[in-house]
Amino acid sequence: MDIKYAILGFLSWQPCTGYDLKKLVTSSPAFYWSGNNNQIYTTLVKLHKEGLVTDRMQPQERYPARRIYTVTEAGLAELRGWVLSEPELPQYRAMFLVQLAWADALSAGELDGLLAKYEEEIKLQLRMLRERERRGINLNPARNPREKYIWTMIDENHIGRYAYELEWVRRLRDGIKNVPQANGKKGE
Amino acid sequence: MDIKYAILGFLSWQPCTGYDLKKLVTSSPAFYWSGNNNQIYTTLVKLHKEGLVTDRMQPQERYPARRIYTVTEAGLAELRGWVLSEPELPQYRAMFLVQLAWADALSAGELDGLLAKYEEEIKLQLRMLRERERRGINLNPARNPREKYIWTMIDENHIGRYAYELEWVRRLRDGIKNVPQANGKKGE
DNA sequence: ACCGACATGTAAGCTGTTACATGATTCC
DNA sequence: GGAATCATGTAACAGCTTACATGTCGGT
Predict the structure, then answer these.
(1) Which nucleotide is nearest to A58 (CA to C1')?
(2) For labelling, which of A101, A128, B44, B76 has a CA lying 20 to 30 Å from the CA of A30?
(3) Does the residue A182 lie in any domain?
(4) Residue A37 · residue A22 · CB < 8 Å
(5) Do both B70 and B135 map to the same domain?
(6) What is the mean predicted confidence (pLDDT) over A2-31?
(7) Are A101 and A148 part of one and the same domain?
(8) Over the range B48-78, which residues count as b (16 or more CB within 10 Å of their CB) and which as e?
């Protein structure tokens, strides 16, 4: 239940409802979860049972009542303890690499088509991330310059990963042209 | 059940037992699964039911009998179809970025300690991957020059990702020294 | 008339993990 | 004597996903 700490973190920034948290989680690729209701609402109930958050209902006139969660002292301590715990390596799950691993059954044309499609998807994603950054719509609590810097670097981490991936696939496409084929020809 | 295609791929290379597949899956970071028995053996049973593989028992003198799986024509067609399907973006799940997102509660020293630990872990991983490559112990069917090139590039993809991550964390540690702290001081 | 935002929650299911269970053989 | 390799398989559960269920309000 790793999302627990993402939620505690958001609540340490400001009290939120489940609905708010869903939007926050989906707003940044660093919070990689889908932000589905089930996970968020049940985690909040669990955090409440553990005494890490409190909740209060806020009735509204035109909309359903909001259940606003606030982090407790115990919750802040729990979050702090986790933040200081041993960092773990990032996990990459790239099904594309598995596809590529068994792509030798393809013709040169089919393989390059596959690589071209992948390059296009990466470019699209990169363009989207850069556009978001340019327009300054990325999430950033920015309670002080250091936090602002950290969140900017987190965004940059994602952009850089896709930039690397794009560079890699271009190098791959370029290099494969010079590799002799099974039939002895080069390329095509 | 994405691992299905990883398994079909290995079987398209050579007939294998569940035990063999477990070792193959864990041998390369591209096949990101843990390679646990449950997943592999149950997937093999499912592939068999679907007619994508056949099995035969091979008794041995000193060891338990081996159940050797071989891919069928239907299995090869299924694999080929999947390899040609739309490539998807890689998924990065980096809990460290979540840790970092809420690291503003830490002192400058604690934060740098966390970053130093992360840098050390990445360096260790990178050294391990490079050592494996240097010693040439990486998996590579290499049925022809093109396949050899592809598998080399897959290994390079992983090395490059960690190299990027290392460069990023160094840049972060360096940059954070010049960011004014909450108390107005720089660094420390 | 329909769609999206607001707001809460539940059901069912898929994927993948750790750990268990068995048992011979080989190496240190 | 203990650990690792060979080899099969199962049980229990953690984590996360899609889809369902309900209902009001505001815009096109």
Answers:
(1) C7
(2) A101
(3) no
(4) yes
(5) no
(6) 97
(7) yes
(8) beeebbebeeeeeeeeeebbbbebbeebeeb
d(CA A110, CA B69): 28
In contact, B91 and A32? CB cutoff 8 Å: yes
Tell me the two tokens of residue A70: 């606030």
DSSP letter assigned to residue A67: E
**How many other CB atoms sit within 10 Å of the CB of residue B81?**
10
What's the alpha-carbon Rg for chain A, to the nearest Å?
A: 22
Angle between helices B108-134 and B145-176 (to 10 degrees): 160
B53-100 pLDDT, tens digit each: 999 999 998 899 999 999 999 999 999 999 999 999 999 999 999 999
Residue to substitute from A43, A86, A99, interface B, most B β-carbons within 10 A: A99
A111: closest CA of chain B, how far (Å): 8
Of B51, B83, B115, the position where a domain reaches its end is B83
Count the domains in chain B: 2
- Please give the C-alpha separations between residue A77 and each of A49, A82, A170, B91, in angstroms, as whole numbers: 16, 9, 46, 31
| B146 vs A12, A83, A181: nearest CB | A181
**Out of A79, A90, A171, whose CB is closest to B92?**
A90
